[in-house]
Amino acid sequence: MTSAPSSIVAPMSLTGESGAFTDVGTCRSVETSHLVRLGSRAVVVSYGSPVTPWAPLRLASTTPLRVHIDGRVVGADRVITISPQTLSAFAEGPHELSVTGAGATGHGRLVLAACAVAVRLAGGPGKAATLSASSHYGVRALTFRLPPGLHVATGRGRILGWATIMTAGYPSRGFALVGPRTESNAVTVSVSAHSLTVTNLPPRTGVFSVTLPAGVLSGRGGVVRLTARTRGSGALLRASTPATWLG
Question: What is the pTM assigned to this prediction?
Answer without folding.
Answer: 0.90
